[in-house]
Amino acid sequence: MRLLLVEDEKRMAQALCEILRLEKYEVDHYADGLSGLTAIESDIYDIIILDVMLPGMNGFEIVKKARQKGIRTPILMLTAKSELEDKITGLDGGADDYLTKPFMTKELLARLRALGRRNINTPDGTLTFGDISLDTNTLTLTCTINRQSVRLSEKEYRILEYLIANQGQILTREQLAVKIWGFENDTEYNNVEVYMSFTRKKLTFVGAKTEIKAVRGMGYKLRCDNV
Questions:
Q1: pLDDT, tens digit, for every residue of 145-194?
Q2: How far is the C-alpha of 116 from the C-alpha of 122, rounded, in Å?
Q3: Please, how many CA atoms are within 13 Å of residue 197, restricted to the half-sphere of its CB?
């Protein structure tokens, strides 16, 4: 799961990035409001952690502009302010949750897990398409017909997660590279091809009829014609 952290306090940001990466989240960090909004508008993130007091543009403005542009990604706001009016402003502006500094790490992680479940719209933490089921907690791929399962690598999981979340759409190699490897990663597009091959082999291994279809000159989409 890819998170965006927009936080200008350097020590806080470093600590949060370290904690989140230990929890197997992929994290991109920006320290000002304008850069944060630009990153949010890319719409590649699964959850956004957004500080209120930021240089350039405050968190309330960022949430409002993001929602106006149709970005529906769950947003958790962080602030040193605990006044009720500030919480109301953030939530009414489009934030999904609100956490006041200082906070316990366990509470932050619990709130992120809750937002992650809300984002995929499955109470049991699974994504499904055709004859496959993807467990978002254990990264396990299962064929729902024969119950054969296999554990995916992180990149394989993210490829299938992204394809399932955008089922019916063609995703370009550029979209996949940015979503899975991030903006600042110099990923060669052949890396996308390599991990696509790995993921297809996992689908074959579990005996799924669902396949990743390459659309010439455009990208990839999921297809399952025989279920």
A1: 999 999 999 889 989 988 988 887 889 888 888 888 776 555 566 788 89
A2: 10
A3: 6
Please answer whether residues 115 and 97 qualify as being in contact, where contact means their C-beta atoms are separated by less than 8 angstroms: yes
Judge contact between 129 and 169, C-beta under 8 A: no
DSSP string, 126-163: EEEETTEEEETTTTEEEETTT--EEEPPHHHHHHHHHH
What's the number of CA atoms in the CB half-sphere (13 Å) around residue 13? Answer: 17
Cis peptide upstream of residue 123 (ω within 30 degrees of 0): no
Please answer whether residues 59 and 50 qualify as being in contact, where contact means their C-beta atoms are separated by less than 8 angstroms. yes
| DSSP secondary structure code for residue 1 in this structure | -
- Secondary structure of residue 33 in the 3-state scheme: helix
Q: Of 119, 167, 158, which Cα lies nearest the Cα of 1?
A: 158
User: Residue 55: what are its φ and ψ, rounded to 5°?
Assistant: -70, 145
